[in-house]
Design goal:
Blueprint: E1 4-6, E2 13-15, H1 16-39, E3 42-48, E4 54-60, E5 66-70, H2 73-80
């Protein structure tokens, strides 16, 4: 649109396209600010290990440091060990 909207004082005019552009820019900035606030100091990352297993990690958003991991690294190493047998941790026979 090339229509112009006169300011209240009549001293300047602003095109409708400029107003639309400014409104769109303000909306994008507002969405970006809201998204940044929603992330918080931590974020959850889910990594597939195999077709049926996943590792859940809570990371610090700023540093990327792993705060918590499930299953833990110790359990992951144990599961990937070729000598590991399911149910081998608890002796069920008498």
């Amino acid at each position: 649109m090339t229509d112009t909207i006169s300011a209240l004082g009549g001293a300047s005019s602003v095109s409708a396209e400029n107003i639309k552009q400014e409104v769109a820019t303000a909306q994008v900035e507002k969405r970006r600010d809201n998204a940044a606030m929603d992330m918080g100091p931590q974020r959850l990352v889910i990594e597939p290990v195999s077709s049926h297993r996943y590792v859940y990690k809570v990371l610090d958003s700023q540093t990327g440091e792993v705060i918590r991991q499930l299953p833990t690294e110790h359990v992951e190493k144990m599961i990937t060990d070729p000598a590991y047998e399911q149910g081998g941790l608890v002796k069920t026979s008498v």
